[in-house]
Write a structure and sequence with these properties.
The chain is α/β, with parallel strands linked by helices. Helix content is 48%, strand content 17%.
Amino acid sequence: MKLLQTDSPAGQQAIATLLSRGGVSLGTVQATVAEMLEAVRSEGDTALRSYAERFDKLAAGSALRVTEAETQAAWNALNPALQTALETAAGQIRSFAERQLPQSWAFEPIPGLVTGQIVRAIDAVGCYVPGGRHPLPSTMLMTVIPAQVAGVGRIVVVSPNPAPETLATAHLLGVTEFYRIGGAHAVAALAYGTATIPAVNKIVGPGNLYVTAAKRQVSSEGSCAIDMLAGPTEIVVASNRGTPEGIASDLVAQAEHDPNAVAVFVTTQADLAAAVLAETDRRAAVNPVAAEALAANGVILVAATPEEARELTNRLAPEHLTVDENDDLSWVRNAGSVFVGEHSPQPMGDYISGPNHTLPTGGLATLRGGLSVNDFIKLITVQQYTPEALAQLGPSAVTLANAEGLLGHAEAIQTRLRRMA
């Protein structure tokens, strides 16, 4: 990692680089992705199977769909301790999602007018569970459970060459529609549909550049909604009182996700900065992926004042943010998920706390929070007038319609008003 003063030329350059990091660089793969999407759209299962055999280690002639017998066998073979851990995590995530779920409501702003909202789930969603460097059953928990809590009728999981842990988690959650595919071709199947895989309304979950580029294209063309464009993992620790061991361990933990991960420590304490640098270097020495990420995208920034450190943290809008104490939440404006205090290691949020670990990256935390039950629902507004309420508000609506030159709008209201006279 680099240790820099925020007001130094090198510090200013590092900050500028971090602020311009954007989401993800998709240009290098977009042409290939577009070709794959079109192939699956036009050729359906033929192209899908060809890509799955080429990229997903799908054996020739084997089924795309995972059977319930396979997932149950994987669960039965799982270490009991891991079974218990998955059950505990699932319970935590489900409880949190249930508290997040918005409610239907109605109220009467004036006598005779009832307005409100009803909550309805999206009909069908696709949950993408990566299957690359590490098996990620936690991502299945984080994507499937909020959809279940929302009441989604059809939940489809796709995961390339799924690991036993991922198969077992599908059984735990009762997932019955699961396909052993990944990459841009899996996104295409979910968005456009094939003979084997009917299309869904929305795709959620993280993936590599190809997956992200595919999600962007199907979303931009209106074929399918998505949650967000996920880039490499990010961590910011904003602390003046944390321990070098705790801060360094979190930086290394998030950096080991990806060689392109971004890891930043912001502080006003030069002594703490130096201690964290030494401890991070020591811990990363035995973690090659983290060492690569920290060398490329790791920086410690020493600010002149707490106010400067706080403002910088909000400008960075990190995916994961650690702060010293609960009072710090008052100044946090932009972050995907916040961890408070020395005893809240960030990996707890990756697995078991309950809040979702699918979080905005690349500065997207200025616009939205992490994946939640809200990504799987629609809020439908409702309004109902009695004659008395229409008589009270109708004339003002007619005036507004006439001012906009929408005479048909005005007439639709006046028709009712005349009948009531």
